[in-house]
Write a structure and sequence with these properties.
This protein is α/β, with parallel strands linked by helices. The protein is built from 6 helices and 7 strands.
């Protein structure tokens, strides 16, 4: 399954996938999504194995209820993951685009228990959706002129865009004039 990462980040649902690939060209966005996913698994009492080695016999740790998230730089070969249990083991791979990543991506897109998140610079539509969601969540009020000014002038990098919105929300809950944010 493929989901836009900015939509995925605003979702309040638990992560139910056991194979997750985060890829794209925006490395700061990849790192941000990776951290978000790891935190989601921690909240569900998964042991986070960052050894970069997949071990099908891993039982987690004392506090993880025998559930493990393997954080890897590349997917293990298919022979190694035939016994992956969706309820107790998950794999997270975060890697910029590359030939190896593209080959894995096409395989994962066919599986319903797998997730592919492609992290690129935000386009206009993605910025609009992200801004609308941010305004809604943080109870901000922006005039139409301010809304479109933000879309046109704030950064296209997701992580920077969110930081700019955070600074904007610290300024005031209601912003009517463009001059207030310039």
């Amino acid at each position: 399954m493929k989901i836009k990462p900015e939509i995925f980040l605003s979702s309040k649902k638990n992560i139910i996938f056991n194979e997750i690939l985060i890829t794209g060209s925006d490395e700061s966005f990849i790192a941000y999504v990776k951290s978000f996913i790891i935190e989601g698994f921690k909240k569900r009492d998964f042991f986070i194995d960052v050894s970069n080695n997949y071990n099908k016999n891993s039982m987690g740790d004392l506090f993880s209820e025998n559930k493990t998230l393997f954080v890897l730089s590349d997917f293990p070969t298919n022979k190694k993951i035939t016994h992956l249990s969706s309820s107790t083991q998950s794999i997270l791979v975060a890697s910029p685009n590359g030939k190896k990543t593209n080959a894995i991506k096409s395989t994962l897109l066919k599986k319903k228990e797998s997730l592919v998140l492609e992290c690129y610079s935000l386009n206009r539509n993605s910025k609009e959706n992200t801004l609308k969601k941010y305004v809604e969540i943080n109870n901000l009020t922006l005039s139409g002129d301010v809304f479109w000014y933000v879309i046109e002038n704030f950064d296209n990098n997701y992580v920077i865009f969110i930081k700019q919105l955070l600074m904007l929300s610290l300024f005031n809950q209601k912003i009517d004039l463009i001059s207030d944010i310039e």
